[in-house]
């Protein structure tokens, strides 16, 4: 598998100016992560988009492991959906990997008129050579979980993946597993509710999701809706195990700080059970009397031994041994900022885990504002990269200092044998020092693929 590949040397990540007060286009940054390089920990290239306020977010590939063995396919295009503008950029990373260029732009009107969808989020390549992108809503900002298909050569919008009338109430992430003829999708919320920040009242009004959707991979019909209940509110990143024969995976649920395992039952349908819960802390000096951990990203190591997730509000990353799939065991934890650092305005009154309020995290003289958010693991499982921006409107609401100072990218050293996490004090990419001012850096991709983009057949 991919963890036999050479060490990563560069990382691509989108940088966002929306909601920062700087009227500049978002851009794709190329960061040097080769410790032998003179430009180590530096942004070595910036590719600005031709429009303003796109909110670049997640990215995917034109070709991945589902096309393995097809010599005509090359992983040379990065697919960059824009969460707010609904544009999709196709970036050429093959001609000059260290200096990507825009190859094509898909305009929002194509998504609106051809698919009735907007707010594209997750992009995955398919074994057919096509590209599939999940969407959060319809062109009016209502929740609508559907999927657009792009031609893998021309990148023209083909139409919807789902059958007419089969879209889900909300959309967000998805992962497919052809050996079990299944695709699982998750729910964030209605774009018009989450667009300018988080209002807890919108959860009670039903503007946020709490369900997993099970799709027939062959017929594109929605077979099941698994309601995770209040404990599973706002299920975000979904990951099958990498073993293509494994009929199970995990989903991180933000609002209550839980992780659910989903699995195929002996009857052949699908079910889910809660396997991890991070308790909320009773606090004062914050917007609510209880602060959830807010699990915002999860990933599984390529050997399917460890599960990692970030608690964006509490400020820690956790590593679990998942050899016993139903009983994950905590084996590593590290705090990297968060909302209740010891010198901040928030005081913890009651913590079921009895953890002290952590000191602020300072790396190379730079204080980390915000909390750990997007994660990417090296192919050998020994280095975990992390950025701090979630989504510009929520960054502005929960971590205004990050808007002023910019986000950062950090690296965690991982014990991939028995477990354990420790911060690499010599690694920091400071996006507060960008040429056009502080910026919000988000999801990370290696040119050769990684454990959150590759699906094996």
UniProtKB/TrEMBL annotation:
Transmembrane segments: none annotated. GO terms for molecular function: methanethiol oxidase activity; selenium binding. It comes from the Eukaryota. GO terms for biological process: protein transport. One of its GO terms (cellular component) is nucleus. It catalyses: methanethiol + O2 + H2O = hydrogen sulfide + formaldehyde + H2O2 + H(+). The keyword Transport applies. Pathway: Organosulfur degradation. Keywords: Acetylation, Cytoplasm, Membrane, Nucleus, Oxidoreductase, Protein transport, Selenium, Transport. It is a peripheral membrane protein. The keyword Disulfide bond does not apply. Its main location: nucleus. InterPro entries: Se-bd, WD40/YVTN_repeat-like_dom_sf. Its EC number is 1.8.3.4. Catalyzes the oxidation of methanethiol, an organosulfur compound known to be produced in substantial amounts by gut bacteria. Selenium-binding protein which may be involved in the sensing of reactive xenobiotics in the cytoplasm. May be involved in intra-Golgi protein transport. Belongs to the selenium-binding protein family. This is Methanethiol oxidase. It comes from Anabas testudineus. The lineage of its organism: Eukaryota, Metazoa, Chordata, Craniata, Vertebrata.
């Amino acid at each position: 598998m991919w963890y036999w590949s050479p060490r990563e040397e560069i990382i691509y990540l989108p940088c966002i100016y929306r909601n920062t007060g700087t009227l500049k286009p978002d851009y794709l940054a190329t960061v040097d992560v080769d410790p032998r390089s003179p430009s180590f920990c530096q942004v070595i290239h910036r590719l600005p988009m031709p429009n303003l306020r796109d909110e670049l977010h997640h990215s995917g590939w034109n070709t991945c492991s589902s096309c393995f063995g097809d010599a005509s396919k090359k992983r040379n295009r990065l697919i960059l959906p824009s969460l707010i503008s609904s544009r999709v950029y196709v970036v050429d990373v093959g001609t000059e990997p260290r200096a990507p260029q825009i190859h094509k732009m898909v305009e929002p009107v194509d998504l609106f008129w051809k698919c009735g969808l907007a707010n594209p989020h997750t992009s995955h390549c398919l074994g057919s050579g096509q590209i599939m992108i999940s969407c959060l809503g319809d062109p009016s900002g209502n929740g609508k979980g559907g999927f657009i298909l792009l031609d893998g050569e021309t990148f023209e919008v083909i139409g919807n993946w789902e059958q007419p009338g089969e879209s889900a109430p909300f959309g967000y992430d998805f992962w497919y597993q052809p050996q079990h003829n299944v695709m699982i999708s998750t729910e964030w919320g209605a774009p018009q509710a989450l667009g300018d920040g988080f209002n807890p009242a919108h959860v009670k009004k039903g503007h946020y999701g709490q369900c997993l959707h099970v799709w027939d991979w062959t017929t594109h019909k929605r077979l099941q809706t698994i309601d995770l209940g209040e404990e599973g509110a706002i299920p975000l990143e979904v990951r099958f195990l990498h073993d293509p024969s494994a009929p199970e995976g995990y989903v991180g649920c933000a609002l209550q700080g839980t992780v659910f395992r989903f699995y195929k039952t002996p009857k052949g349908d699908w079910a889910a059970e809660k396997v991890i819960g991070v308790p909320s802390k009773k606090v004062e000096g914050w917007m609510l009397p209880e602060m959830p951990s807010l699990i915002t990203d999860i990933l599984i190591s390529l050997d399917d031994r460890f599960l990692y997730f970030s608690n964006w509000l509490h400020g820690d990353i956790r590593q679990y041994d998942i050899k016993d799939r139903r009983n994950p065991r905590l084996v590593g934890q590290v705090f990297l900022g968060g909302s209740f650092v010891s010198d901040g305005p928030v005081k913890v009154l009651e913590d079921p885990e009895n953890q002290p309020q952590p000191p602020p995290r300072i790396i190379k003289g730079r204080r980390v504002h915000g909390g750990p958010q997007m994660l990417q693991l090296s192919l050998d499982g020994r280095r975990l990269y992390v950025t701090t921006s979630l989504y510009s409107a929520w960054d502005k609401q929960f971590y205004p200092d990050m808007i002023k100072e910019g986000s950062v990218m950090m690296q965690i050293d991982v014990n991939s044998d028995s477990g354990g996490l420790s911060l690499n004090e010599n690694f920091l990419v400071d996006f507060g020092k960008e040429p056009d001012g502080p910026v919000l850096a988000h999801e990370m991709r290696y040119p050769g693929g990684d454990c959150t983009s590759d699906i094996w057949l």
